[in-house]
TrEMBL record:
The protein, known as: Phosphotransferase enzyme family protein
Family matches, as InterPro entries: AGP_Transferase (IPR051678), Aminoglycoside_PTrfase (IPR002575), Kinase-like_dom_sf (IPR011009)
Ranges for domain Aminoglycoside phosphotransferase: 78-265
PANTHER family the UniProt entry points to: AMINOGLYCOSIDE PHOSPHOTRANSFERASE DOMAIN-CONTAINING PROTEIN, AMINOGLYCOSIDE PHOSPHOTRANSFERASE-RELATED-RELATED
Length: 286
């Protein structure tokens, strides 16, 4: 497996430690976040896994996502979403971050006490499933009202040369079309038959880009409600169809979730998904 690109080496010293003193965690005077050393001591897979399992501090209600490839950008995204939408789009409250001497980033956030939609889905009846998808629909529509210049890139690109932000949707599509050819250098003059199926006039929307059941936390009690949408590491500005493509991409084609429910909270974009699927398979990102 190729190495991930170095993504935090250029973080200035002033950005290597941050406490959001206006967050709920610091309402009590004298409180401090667990140190990176304390988090490392509790980790069972830090030396075996490039993406270690997060650590939970139950007593203080702190959840720590950490690793060499965790980014400060995710913390900044959570902060922006919380300040912009409040509880309308529920995300974990971010308390701060640390970057240690090995360039591991530690994101400290509020522990969400619930279960993933993936774990709880089969326990829900049809009206409860419909309610969850109605909630998702409202949240996605609110998220799409954000307006900003395009930036960031999708994790499908993480083993490939750096790119973006792109000046236009056309440039983004041209780059997407080009990426599979990096694995086939003999096809330099290959005329991509799928490129014309990608709409260059597409609107750019803020996108979670990993909206599957494992990243949706729901309540254990009834009626089931969404407590948080988590894991915003891949979030960014993408063509409008991208959320739908990624939702399908992260679910099995046999699943009820994909077959019956994704289309209820995201607008179907099957043509774009077929192109997306061709590109990702050609890149080996499956």
């Amino acid at each position: 497996m190729p190495e991930f690109p170095a993504i935090i080496e250029s973080i200035p010293e002033s950005m290597r430690e941050m406490d959001f003193l206006d967050s709920s965690y610091f309402k009590e005077p004298g409180k401090s976040l667990p140190t990176p050393a304390q988090v490392r001591a509790l980790s069972k897979d830090i030396h075996m896994n490039s993406q270690p399992q997060p650590i939970t501090f139950e007593d203080s209600g702190v959840f720590v996502k950490f690793g060499r490839y965790v980014t400060i950008a995710e913390a900044q995204c959570l902060r922006m979403l919380k300040r912009t939408f409040g509880d309308e789009i529920p995300v974990p409250e971010i308390f701060g971050w640390r970057v240690d001497e090995e360039n591991f980033v530690f994101l400290y956030m509020r522990l969400i006490r619930g279960q993933t939609l993936l774990d709880g889905w089969n326990e829900l009846d049809s009206p409860a499933k419909s309610s969850i998808c109605d909630q998702l629909c409202h949240m996605v529509n609110r998220l799409r009202r954000l307006e900003q210049d395009p930036s960031d890139q999708d994790y499908v690109f993480q083993y490939y040369p750096d790119a973006g932000p792109f000046p236009s949707v056309k440039d983004f599509h041209d780059w997407s079309s080009f990426l599979p050819l990096l694995r086939l250098p003999t096809l330099k003059n290959y005329n991509d038959p799928y490129r014309s199926l990608l709409p260059d006039s597409e609107d750019i929307k803020f996108t979670h880009a990993d909206l599957h059941q494992g990243n949706i936390i729901i309540s254990s009690d009834k009626p089931a409600r969404i407590l948080a949408i988590v894991d915003w590491a891949q979030a960014g500005w993408y063509p409008d169809y991208r959320e739908y493509c990624k939702a399908l991409y992260t679910s099995s084609y046999k699943d009820e979730w994909r077959r019956d429910w994704i289309d209820t909270f995201l607008s179907p974009r099957l043509q774009e998904f077929l192109v997306f699927a061709e590109y990702t398979m050609a890149m080996g990102a499956v």
